[in-house]
Design a protein that fits this description.
48% of the residues lie in helices and 14% in strands. By secondary structure, the chain is of the alpha/beta class. The protein has a 5-stranded parallel β-sheet with strand order 2-6-1-7-8. The protein binds 2'-deoxycytidine-5'-monophosphate (DC). 2'-deoxycytidine-5'-monophosphate (DC) binds next to α2, α4 and α8.
Length: 231
Amino acid sequence: MGEHIHIAIDGPSSAGKSTIANYLAGMLNIPYLDTGAMYRAVALALRDKEFCLNQKNVEARLLVFLKRVDLQVFLQAGLSARQRVLLNGEEVTDKLRTPELATLASNISAYKSVRDFLVALQQSIALNSDIILDGRDIGTVVLPDAKLKIFLTASLEVRAIRRYNEFIERGIDTTLEEVKQQIATRDNNDSTRKHAPLKKADDAFELDTTDLSIEETAQVIYAKAKIFNII
Ligand code: DC
């Protein structure tokens, strides 16, 4: 994908990928694509149409379903530039970050037809842009030639606390134990699925953020980008 600045940030749920990618996008003044939001939007579309995943020929039926899904993502460069997601013409951005859609997104992301549909869309968005992408398979599948690949991790405890605090701030009723359980289940789903499982790319730089602040993490990645001569 040529000479563009492509930064891939992968890692397990709630490792801080979106926060860091957003911060870094501000530092570099380039856009950032949260690919998890796209899986969540497809999950929402399937839920709204009461699509049944437990019947025969699910991949073939998903293919037919996805042909009629109009998913549009609008990006802006810079810090706090909010990504907007439109599903069949309706703005769904604020509906996506719920525990229910997180779990459903993880479940439906195991289907090859869903992955093929979204990977193609993500690659077309990245094609002619400087951009940061975050997800589970960016460094391994979506942008295998990205010049900088980061694999963000953090302890389950810290990830659960971060996500719990976010839910509480947004008025979502839950408990720390429940959040921890959901994250552990998603980690397991995402890393054991057959198609494009969550996996560190061989050439990715692993960064454990358990004891790092957002600023510290972003600084480490920024320094890497300088060393690798991509900015
Ligand atoms: O990053 P997130 O929590 O918004 O992602 C929701 C789910 O979507 C995640 O559990 C797995 C799936 N996902 C994926 O399979 N590949 C990606 N690149 C991004 C998300």
